[in-house]
Structure formats: C-alpha cells, structure tokens
Design goal:
5 helices; 102 residues; mainly alpha
Length: 102
C-alpha cells in the first residue's frame, strides 16, 4: 500500500517550526526524547518516521519521542503500517519483523 498526499501546514505550525530551528539548542531538542530524555541516536529503533496523521495526534511537533514513549502515547503497539516508507525506517522495519509477527 502506498500513501501519497499533499502535506499542508498551518501558519502556526510554520511559526513553531521557524522558532524551533532558530533556537540555539534545536539540535539537542531534535535528538533527545521529549518524555524520557533518552538519546534517540543511540538505538536504531528510536530513529523513525510515522504517518503525519499519527504524529499530529500523538507526537510532539518538531521535537522527538523515542519508540517506547511514542507507543505509550498511542496506547498500543506500533505496526509496520504506522511507518512511512523512507530511509530512516529501514532499521525500524527490521526490528518490527522480529517483534510483531503477523
């Protein structure tokens, strides 16, 4: 299944994006989990990308969440269908094969 859609952002989201990336510590905010402060660059499964609809409902805007904290926010185990098809998710999909057999 391939999902394609135009990504639209509001003026508020654009403003928040600009504020975030103009912040002197944006690299730290974009690396450490917003909820538990885990370094998401140390574990391959913590560096992932999910569909916009899912992130808008449970995510933290331009900050990051580790895999486990995002699952807690969603309230269920993530499945392969939750992840977009991109380079960042190749390692996560390998992880999912062993954990969530369907």
């Amino acid at each position: 299944m391939i999902k394609t859609e135009l990504i639209q952002i509001t003026k508020q989201e654009l403003k928040e994006s600009n504020e975030f990336y103009n912040s002197p510590n944006w690299k730290t905010l974009a690396r450490f989990c917003n909820d538990c402060n885990k370094d998401t660059f140390k574990n391959k499964k913590d560096y992932y990308s999910v569909w916009d609809e899912l992130w808008k409902e449970f995510g933290v805007g331009f900050k990051v969440l580790c895999y486990d904290c995002f699952e807690k926010r969603v309230g269920r185990k993530l499945t392969k269908e939750d992840f977009i098809d991109c380079e960042a998710n190749k390692k996560v999909k390998e992880f999912l094969k062993g954990v969530y057999k369907k």
